[in-house]
Amino acid sequence: MEQYDIQHPLFERLDWYSELSSPLSTADNEHYTEEKEKATRHVDLYHKTDSDDDTAEILDAFLEYLPQAGQLNLISEILEICEPDQDRTELKTLRNFLVDAVLRPMMRRKGRGCRSRTPSVSSAASSFSGKSEIGERQEQLRQEALLRDGGRCVLTGFYDRESLKRDNRAVPRGCFALRTRCAHILPLSLRKFNERTGMQTRNIATIWWALRRYFPNTVPKINTSDLEGTLNQVSNTFTVIGEVQGMFDNFEIAFRATSETDFAVELFLRDEYDRRINEVVRYGTNNTGIAAPDRDFLDVHRRVGQILRVGGIRISILSGSIDRNTPGSCPDTGDTVRRWLLSSESPDVNLVGV
Question: What are the sequence ranges of the domains in the chain?
Answer without folding.
Answer: 121-191+233-302+319-351
